[in-house]
Backbone:
């Protein structure tokens, strides 16, 4: 193919009136609407049936990086990456809900005559890759650092808590407004994709290896129609001129460029990949980066300051929203500096300064920026207070369901440094005092700190406030149960735990807490009913099976207890307590050989356990192996010279 002429710059974009409408826009709009309909059907199915497929969302893949958990989100994300390796970055353009929102914003702005100009920043373009590394690579690196096990994996393809990893409606709407609408006006079409989306980083990398992409024939006359209609801010005309194809991984294969090409020179087809593409011209044009070095640094510093200020603010701003908001604020800082330094400056569709004079819109803009700066400073101060409060709160022990036992709870509280809980309470109250809006999670943290500080009445009030705000309902019901039990009101404590089961019927934790409490209080029949109900919901839970077996044992139903404990260790071979109890019950039934086998397996997990060594010695004696029993007792005495029980057994055997 003959080389096209070398042009110094991108050809001047034609006027919209000169470009024929794209045939792909309506098709893409229909596909994106269908995507939202499918998402709505998924939500309705969950609401109607109470259980549905786990969220089909790339962020859910973090569960695999953090805990080896395979869910629908991971499968979907992996599939889209693999498809991108073949077809290019199709999913972003035709299947992403946030792209749909951004395109809608661009269309609405176009209807009022506003065409956002893309911000082209080299430093901010690194944000998606950094965000991807933080979400998906950092958890793996951390687990390697702490030597966490990567063996095995869990499978969670359905859930009863579809919305548990998503923000509420208010935050969701604010996310769409900021990351779907405002960001387009300030940063240009696909502004979120370019400067915030972590998934776009891996899709962009996979696109570099795709053999399917936008390509050009010799019929191209460099009219520039393709670049003018590209909503991904790709300089299509320049790229096909220089490389014979679009190499920019920002290309989302919308194919508007193909549709509007007046000569039919563009097509989507197979050919060389773009990763090592050689230019087909003598000197390809260099990428245009209009920002100066100080502007790049200002953007980067402002982005970092905004991100760390607003991420998690009021316990509500999620990671992706904070990325979008940081991008917008970084641009506003740059825009303010330009407004103050230049004689002429305007935002898309609005003139702020002309011939050295501020226009009314410019004055209003500066007032808004001043108010925003005050809010930003206040938010930064609040985030600092929140950081201090979180650090103080993290130093406190977490009272779990097992600490419903007043004796165990009191032992834990007595080991707590006397100043720790009051310090955390004071820090959390500082956050509450300076907050302009309710801080999600503050009531629950304050309730926990007040409980540890011995202020039960205030802790109860905060726990009830937390429940009203929808904060950590299971934990707050546990706390209220502990406080109620601490007053000697057993029935009241049981009632709080029963409410926890009603709220989360498919979660094993409330059943474990209530069943254990009932068993300790001697209500074995009711405890058995609770554990049977729980096993019906979570049939293969080792914890539930183990505790149900203990209730059988307490009720004198040894055979039933043995059956459940055998099932427990089959499901979870490393469950030490279950194996030790199984060995003991087998011994009580005279099944010495089986008992010895389980005791030996238990010792392989905890080789220095003196109690297990002594119990194994008794089991060996039961089966007539005095030599083996003596060896176990000698090991006890080696580990703990003078052990009275071992010495007594040795004496009874006739040293």
Residues:
């Amino acid at each position: 193919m003959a080389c096209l002429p070398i042009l110094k710059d991108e050809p001047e974009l034609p006027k919209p009136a000169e470009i024929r409408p794209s045939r792909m826009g309506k098709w893409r709009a229909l596909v994106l609407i269908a995507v939202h309909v499918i998402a709505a059907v998924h939500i309705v199915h969950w609401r109607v049936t109470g259980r549905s497929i786990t969220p089909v969302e790339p962020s859910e893949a973090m569960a695999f990086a953090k805990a080896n958990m395979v869910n629908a989100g991971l499968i979907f994300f992996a599939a889209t990456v693999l498809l991108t390796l073949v077809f290019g970055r199709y999913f972003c353009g035709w299947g992403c809900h946030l792209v749909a929102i951004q395109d809608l914003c661009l269309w609405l702005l176009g209807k009022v005559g506003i065409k956002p100009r893309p911000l082209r920043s080299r430093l901010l373009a690194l944000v998606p890759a950094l965000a991807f590394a933080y979400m998906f690579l950092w958890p793996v690196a951390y687990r390697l650092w702490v030597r966490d096990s990567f063996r095995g994996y869990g499978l969670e393809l359905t859930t009863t808590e579809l919305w548990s990893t998503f923000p509420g409606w208010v935050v969701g709407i604010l996310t769409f407004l900021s990351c779907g609408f405002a960001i387009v006006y300030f940063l240009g079409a696909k502004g979120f994709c370019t400067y915030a989306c972590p998934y776009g980083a891996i899709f962009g990398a996979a696109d570099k290896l795709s053999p399917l992409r936008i390509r050009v024939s010799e019929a191209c006359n460099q009219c520039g129609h393709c670049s003018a209609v590209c909503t991904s801010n790709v300089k299509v005309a320049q790229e096909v001129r220089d490389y014979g194809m679009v190499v920019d991984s920002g290309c989302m294969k919308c194919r508007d460029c193909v549709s509007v090409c007046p000569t039919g020179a563009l097509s989507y087809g197979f050919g060389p990949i773009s990763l090592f593409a050689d230019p087909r011209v003598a000197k390809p044009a260099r990428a245009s980066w209009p920002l100066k070095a100080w502007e790049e640094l200002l953007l980067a510093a402002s982005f970092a300051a905004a991100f760390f200020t607003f991420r998690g603010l009021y316990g509500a701003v999620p990671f992706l929203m904070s990325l979008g908001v940081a991008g917008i604020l970084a641009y506003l800082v740059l825009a303010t500096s330009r407004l103050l330094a230049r004689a002429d400056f305007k935002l898309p569709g609005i003139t702020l300064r002309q011939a050295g004079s501020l226009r009314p819109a410019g004055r209003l803009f500066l007032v808004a920026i001043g108010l925003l700066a005050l809010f930003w400073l206040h938010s930064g101060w609040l985030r600092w207070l929140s950081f201090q409060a979180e650090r103080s709160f993290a130093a406190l022990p977490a009272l779990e369901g097992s600490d419903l036992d007043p004796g165990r709870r009191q032992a834990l509280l007595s080991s707590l440094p006397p100043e720790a809980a009051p310090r955390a309470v004071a820090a959390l109250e500082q956050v509450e005092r300076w907050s302009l809006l309710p801080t999600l999670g503050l009531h629950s943290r304050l309730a926990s700190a007040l409980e540890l500080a011995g202020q039960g009445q205030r802790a109860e009030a905060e726990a009830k406030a937390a429940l009203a705000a929808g904060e950590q309902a299971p934990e707050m019901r546990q706390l209220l149960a502990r406080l109620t039990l601490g007053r000697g009101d057993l029935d009241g404590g049981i009632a709080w735990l029963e409410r926890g089961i009603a709220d989360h019927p498919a979660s094993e934790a409330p059943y474990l807490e209530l069943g254990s409490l009932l068993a300790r209080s001697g209500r074995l029949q009711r405890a058995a009913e609770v554990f049977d109900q729980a096993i019906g919901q979570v049939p293969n839970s080792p914890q539930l099976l183990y505790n149900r077996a203990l209730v059988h044992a307490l009720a004198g139903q040894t055979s039933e207890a043995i059956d459940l404990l055998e099932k427990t260790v089959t499901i979870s071979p490393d469950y030490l307590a279950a194996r030790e109890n199984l060995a003991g019950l087998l011994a009580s039934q005279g099944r010495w050989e089986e008992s010895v086998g389980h005791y030996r397996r238990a010792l392989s997990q905890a080789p220095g356990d003196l109690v297990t060594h002594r119990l194994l010695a008794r089991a060996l004696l039961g089966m007539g192996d005095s030599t083996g029993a003596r060896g176990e007792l000698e090991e006890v005495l080696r580990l703990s010279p003078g052990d009275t029980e071992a010495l007594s057994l040795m004496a009874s055997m006739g040293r």
Notes: Confidence is low (pLDDT under 50) at residues 1-9. The longest strand covers residues 212-216.
